[in-house]
Design goal:
789 residues; seven-stranded mixed beta sheet; five-stranded mixed beta sheet; 7% strand; elongated
Length: 789
């Protein structure tokens, strides 16, 4: 054994002999025969190893002596050893003994290609030991008769098939272990004998077979203990094994039973860990990967000490049933100490292997994620019969769960409710603003002509996205429940149902960050729109099926008019348009400017003799200051104002959506009049008060608050143009002259999380290319009309 494995053995808590002489479970190994001390024979060539096993992990388990070198194991010298060894010379096994032990063990390892799926057998053994170690006290049989009744026919069938070829070896191991434990054989010699018997099996099979052999005898002891009081045959057998007497003295034996139970638990934990290495998919992880190599080098040692632990447990039971409770009580302290020491040793090994297993799984997860993200886009380029394959990949591939929550019935349902339906995936975090939900719910309800789900052209499914790297909390759980209960459409029942690779692929394909996205899939799962949210805000359900061609067609029919900006949001404005009145839409949060503007506008209207109405539409952010402005406007009766901030949010969301729609269609903004006007309004919103002047549906002009207020105040300077130009053109020409002279700057903000940032933009005023900056903004306005993206 090389230096690195020797250090690994030193890092494992050693059994000591100070003050307490050890019994057979921990005595030193028998002298090694002369032939075992000879130089190691040449290893089996790689090509021969390859022929012995089909699984590359199993090939790695066929560890020749030279493969025990592992630098990771050198780090395993821990503080536990210092606690257990008060004097370095008192360790039962020195470094040379450690080397000798493992050389002897590995010399018995001669696999012949026999590969055993040990999982079914391990499940059976775990079941036996679970019911055998409930506690140290006698449990009446009636407490067990109704336990664990799930259907196990399939599992039992698998075990039965396996046992056809393994029963003989298990019985042989059980008999040999029982005999050696009864005759006082030392633990190492017993272990070597068992290893010789199982020489042709792989390491995981050696361990599970030995554990099964122990479970035969241990399970029999506890079965008799549990039923002897109600079964005559069991009672007679129990008497032969002194079970009734032992059960009558469980109190003084409790420390011993507790130590035995803890050691068995440690053995099972380590066994499960070793078996899980074999189950790792070889297509994602190879034996030469560092964590896998470290584990494979340590597994022979782990199997050896786990089998030593099993032998120690078997010795405890044998001593009780053969020597009686008096001996058991007299030696309880010593035996409990030995069992606890072995448990510490096994736990130490298990911790090391568990870390390697976690590292392997992390690598597997990363490779699976990379592979999934690479093939995710290909999935949408394939023609499917219906939409189920796409939805199963996106939401849940499992057929045994109900992944959806029906917002109308408040019940969980399967994905089949979406089969061959047009589906809108509402992708968002857990903090989707209530304003957006309210507007979307209204549009969704309007799409149901008869008020029933099947009458609508599409279904909406909420896909809640939680950052996989963020620890999930109870508060987040409550938020999910609150959100899905508000929604009338379907929701994914819980974010954990969605695989983390899917979450990242959604970000890759649809540029999702935090801003809600509405992906449209048709009845075959084809992607009709990567984000129809802007179309939904602008045109509602009339934009269905939300394709680019439909979007082009809708824009083709649009003109720059007031109806485009306000839609049907406000019946008052709709009436003013019908009556062909002059209308001011204005915004901002400067109360003094609002007072001056509204009063001056009324004075100008009276002087010009025109019917004028005004409506306040707030700002896209700073919700609290907008609320204060709304209150002042209402109290002082300055003008009409929307009383719901949701409508103000929707006004600005629609305007933003128009910009994003134009960008997505790649319209050249220097050639698109509507694009220029949309950009102006969005820019004005960032720089203070502004106003838009209309006559009926016709928009006459827009401008900053300063130029608009000045135009109104200077009415006497341009009123003489009205007889020749008309009021509309006179107002526009005078304002536009002031606007050019003011030379105001324009700016736009595109949050990175929005995912749709144009490469470049032209100024809507001077038409030159605008400069691009990166800014960091913190307005401390957590309840803004447009929440931070």
């Amino acid at each position: 054994m090389d230096a690195s494995m020797s250090k690994f053995m030193k890092g494992i808590p050693a059994l000591t002999s100070e003050r307490k002489p050890l019994t057979g479970t921990t005595s030193a190994p028998n002298p090694v025969p002369q032939q075992q001390q000879q130089p190691q024979q040449p290893m089996v060539p790689n090509q021969q190893l390859t022929s012995l096993a089909s699984n590359p992990h199993q090939k790695q388990l066929m560890v020749p002596n030279h493969q025990l070198n592992n630098p990771v194991l050198r780090q395993m010298v821990g503080p536990v050893q210092k606690k257990l060894i008060t004097n370095e010379g008192n360790s039962v096994f020195s470094a040379s003994d450690d080397n000798m032990i493992m050389r002897q063990v590995i010399d018995t390892h001669l696999p012949d290609g026999t590969d055993v799926d040990v999982k079914p057998l391990l499940l059976t053994v775990q079941d036996i030991l679970k019911h055998s170690t409930i506690n140290a006290d006698h449990v009446p049989s009636d407490e067990h008769t109704n336990e664990d009744k799930p259907d196990r026919k399939s599992h039992q069938s698998n075990v039965a098939v396996m046992l056809n070829s393994l029963t003989h070896i298990i019985d042989k191991l059980a008999s040999e272990m029982a005999l050696r434990c009864l005759t006082g054989g030392d633990g190492h010699a017993t272990a070597l004998a068992l290893f010789h018997t199982m020489g042709n099996f792989h390491w995981d099979a050696k361990l599970v077979l030995t554990l099964a052999a122990f479970a035969l005898n241990y399970g029999e002891f506890w079965l008799l203990a549990q039923i002897y009081s109600s079964n005559q045959l069991a009672k007679s057998m129990a008497i032969l094994k002194q079970v009734p007497t032992i059960m009558e003295h469980t109190a003084p034996l409790k420390p011993r039973f507790d130590a035995l139970r803890k050691l068995i638990h440690s053995i099972l934990e380590l066994t499960q860990c070793i078996v899980e290495f074999k189950e790792l998919p070889s297509m994602y992880i190879t034996p030469d990967m560092p964590a896998m190599a470290s584990a494979m080098n340590a597994i022979p040692t782990a199997v050896y000490w786990n089998i030593r632990g099993i032998i120690a447990c078997a010795t405890q039971v044998a001593s009780l049933t053969s020597m009686g409770h008096e001996y058991g009580i007299a030696s309880t302290e010593l035996q409990s100490w030995e069992l606890s020491t072995l448990a510490l040793k096994i736990n130490h090994i298990h911790e090391f292997l568990r870390q390697q297993l976690e590292n392997c799984r992390r690598v597997i997860g990363e490779k699976k994620e990379i592979e999934f993200r690479r093939t995710f886009n290909q999935l949408f380029e394939t023609i499917h019969y219906d939409n189920m394959k796409i939805l199963k990949v996106l939401i849940s591939p499992k057929d045994d769960i109900l992944p959806l929550f029906d917002g109308s019935t408040k019940k969980r349902v399967s994905l089949d409710v979406l089969r061959k339906r047009n589906v809108l995936l509402l992708i968002s975090g857990l903090d989707m603003p209530q304003d957006e939900l309210s507007i979307l719910e209204e549009i969704y309800s309007d799409s149901r002509v008869q008020g029933t789900r099947t009458d609508g052209p599409y279904e909406i499914v909420w896909i809640p996205i939680v950052d996989p790297s963020v620890k999930y909390t109870n508060e987040m759980d409550m938020k999910v429940e609150e959100m899905r209960n508000k929604m009338p459409w379907y929701s994914v029942y819980h974010p954990s149902i969605i695989d983390s690779a899917v979450v990242k692929s959604i970000g890759d394909r649809w540029h999702f960050r935090n801003k809600p996205t509405l992906v449209v899939l048709d009845t075959q799962g084809r992607e009709l729109s990567p984000n129809a949210m802007h179309m939904m805000w602008i045109w509602g359900t009339s934009a269905f099926p939300f394709t680019s061609s439909k979007e082009e067609l809708l824009w083709k029919d649009e003109t720059w008019r007031l109806e485009l900006l306000v839609g049907g949001m406000d019946p008052n404005i709709s009436n003013w348009i019908t009556q062909d009145k002059y209308i001011f839409l204005y915004g901002g949060d400067d109360i003094e400017w609002i007072r001056k503007f509204t009063n001056t506008a009324r004075a100008m209207a009276r002087a010009a003799g025109i019917p004028l109405e005004m409506a306040y539409v707030g700002k896209s952010h700073k919700k609290e200051s907008v609320r204060r402005a709304m209150a002042t406007i209402s109290v002082e009766k300055l003008s009409h104002s929307w009383q719901e901030t949701t409508l103000m949010w929707f006004f600005w969301a629609r305007l933003e959506s128009m910009l994003y729609s134009k960008i997505q269609l790649k319209r050249a903004d220097d050639q698109d009049h509507m694009m220029q006007q949309i950009k102006k309004l969005l820019s004005y919103d960032k720089d203070g008060p502004w106003a838009l002047f209309c006559r009926g549906s016709k928009i006459l002009t827009t401008g900053h608050g300063s130029t608009m207020l000045q135009t109104l105040a200077d009415f006497d300077l341009w009123k003489n143009d009205i007889p020749t130009k008309g009021f509309d053109l006179s107002f526009k020409d005078y304002h536009d002259k002031l606007h050019v002279a003011a030379n105001n700057c324009c700016r736009f903000e595109f949050p990175i999380a929005a995912g749709r940032i144009p490469e470049g933009m032209r100024c809507p005023e001077c038409h030159r290319l605008m400069e691009k900056y990166i800014s960091f903004l913190c307005c401390h306005d957590q309840t803004g009309l447009l929440e931070p993206y």
